[in-house]
């Protein structure tokens, strides 16, 4: 059951670019891109909190788990 990152979905719903999110959160575009593509090994809670505040969402809106059927 892999973890799925839906950051691109939330960005599209909020009509926000990765650059704009980077500026609001204070995280580099490269690091956000790594997170967005699911290549990150982890994410700090304070970073996740800042992303959620900027996107007005909950962590579960960004991070999900893919169920094998």
UniProtKB/TrEMBL annotation:
GO terms for molecular function: DNA binding. It comes from the Bacteria. SMART domains: HTH_XRE (SM00530). Residues 13-62 form the HTH cro/C1-type domain. Pfam families: HTH_26 (PF13443). This is Putative transcriptional regulator.
